[in-house]
Amino acid sequence: MEWLAGLAKAVVQVAIAIGSMIGSAVPGAVPAHAPVTPSSAAVVAAVASSPSSKAVPGQLLVRYRDGVQAAAVDALEKSHGAARKAEIRALRLHVVSVPTGDEDAIALALGSDARVEIVERDFAVTSTGTTPNDYWWPNEWSEVKTRTNLAWDMTQGSSSIVIASLDTGVDLTQPDLQAKLVAGYNVLNGSSDATDDNGHGTWAAGVAAAASNNSIGVASYCWRCSLMPVKVLGADGTGTTANVASGIIWATDHGARVISMSLSGTTGTSALQSAVYYAHSRGVVLVAAAPRLIPPRIPRCSASPGAIRTMPSTRGPPTAPG
Fold it and tell me: Has residue 48 been placed in a domain?
């Protein structure tokens, strides 16, 4: 499996993934009774000096204990004024809407019920980086700097390796991507239409696995890998940790071998951490990018087994991690 190791090397170099929020649980979450699995999803302080993630108004994430009947769940939610918006069955998780302004009170009330394992606020995430306006962006210096061409000497990947790009979607008519696409998913509306309405997702997908060595477009990191578009961000480039968790579960269950997410936030949730654990335990490689901070440093990215952290770079010579 030497070619797979080579592929992993290439993918690691690409800074198109989630930010440091993936390993931090929500300050203020209500740990009802017992800690959530995995136990590493403890409350961790958000990364200082990064743009702060905002709590999603009127939305909570609720995990129920195994064996709790659906009728009891419905009755409990209704009794506290909560309405179910979505469900992530693999995580036994409900995304519920509650009256804006009452989130903390309802979270405390739900968390006091023995049938509830954990309840927490959901938090916003957003796409990272700036989408280049030059199609050739500019001369692809990053691939030379990261010596990706040496990995290409070993392998250019395989169509059997599916890279799921969790982002704003993909332009399904883009000529460098069309032949690389497998079935995708739109978490926002529950459909199979993962069309990009922002542009960021198409760029990120192209960096990862655009058709290459074909005299057009750009050379991607993994020339022959397949692409699975999973839309978790809206047209404005924002979404929620619940969206991302749903996307991770869907991609894992539908054959993704690598999950790349070009989005970030400073506050995570145990739901997101559990989704990472779910994917990692099934052999999926998750690539997590740590955003550049001022002053430069590698931020803490705790409690994320299986998530590979990368850092953004510039054209200059490599520097040792600090």
Answer: yes
| Model confidence, pTM | 0.72
Q: How far is CA 233 from CA 59, 196, 205, 209, 308, in A?
A: 17, 9, 14, 20, 21
With residue 124 as reference, give the H or E element that holds it. Answer: strand 116-127
Whether residue 300 is predicted with pLDDT greater than 60 in this model: the reply is no
CB 21 within 8 A of CB 264: yes
Does the residue 264 lie in any domain? yes
Q: Are residues 192 and 45 in the same domain?
A: no
In this structure, the answer to whether residues 279 and 263 fall within a common structural domain is: yes
Q: Which residue has the higher pLDDT, 24 or 178?
A: 178
Alpha helices by DSSP H, listed for 59-145, are 70-79, 103-111, 141-145
Instruction: State which residues form the domain around 100.
Output: 27-124
Alpha carbons within 13 A on the beta-carbon side of 318: 10
Q: Based on the fold, state whether residues 58 and 189 are members of the same structural domain.
A: no
Look at residue 283 and tell me if it is in a domain: yes
The whole-number average pLDDT for the span 224-242 is 93
286 pLDDT above the threshold of 80? yes
Within 10 angstroms of residue 13's Cβ, the number of other Cβ atoms is: 17
Please answer whether residues 194 and 232 qualify as being in contact, where contact means their C-beta atoms are separated by less than 8 angstroms: no
* Residue 195: pLDDT over 90: yes
315 is a domain residue = no
Q: Of the residues 71, 91, 124, which one is the last residue of a structural domain?
A: 124
Q: Which whole-number Å values give the CA distances from 322 to 19, 20, 184, 299, in the listed order?
A: 17, 16, 38, 10
The count of structural domains within the chain is: 2
Residue at 128: amino acid letter: T
- The residue to which tokens 């099934």 are assigned: 282
